[in-house]
Amino acid sequence: MVSSHDNDLVFQSYGRCCRREQFFEDFYNIFLDKSDAVRSMFANTNMGEQRRLLRAGITWLLMFARGAPGSKLRHLGETHNRTGYDIHPTLYGLWLEALMEAVQRNDPSYSQELDLRWRNVLRPGIEVIQSGY
Ligand code: HEM
Question: What is the CATH number of the domain that holds 63?
C-alpha cells in the first residue's frame, strides 16, 4: 500500500522533472546506454515522439498509485507483451534504474529517501504492465 504522503512527494518530484525537457532526454540516453538489446528496440523510433509518450506513461503509473483504474497500464501490458514489442519482464529493472538516474540529475530536491519513495510508488503500476507479458 502506497501512502498518500509518498504519492504527493513523488508527484511533486515528477512535476520538477517535467519542467526540464532535459529530464526525458537524459532518461533515454541513460536507458539506451544500458543495453544494446534495448538500443536496437528503438532503432526506428521517433525519439521526440517517444519522449512525449513516456511523459504520459509515467503519469499513468503515478495516477494508478493514487487509485485510478489500471486500464491504460493494462493496455501498455498488451503492446509490450510477447506478441507485441516482446519486452521481457526483467527489462523493467533497467527501465527503473534509468528513470531514477534521470530523476537524480534533474530534481534539485532528490534524496535517497525520495528515490525509495519513487520506487514504491511506481512498483504496483509496473507490475500491471509486466503481468501482461
Ligand atoms: C513501466 C515502464 C514503461 C512504460 C510506462 C512505457 C511506456 C510506453 C509508452 C506510453 C509507449 C507508447 C505507446 C505504445 O506503443 O504502447 C511505449 C512504447 C514502447 N516501449 Fe515502453 N514503456 C515502459 C517500459 C519499456 C521497456 C522496459 C522497454 C524495452 C526494454 C520498452 C520498449 C518500448 C518500445 C520498443 C516501444 C515502441 C517504440 C516505437 O513505437 O518505435 N518499454 N512505451
Answer: 1.10.490.10
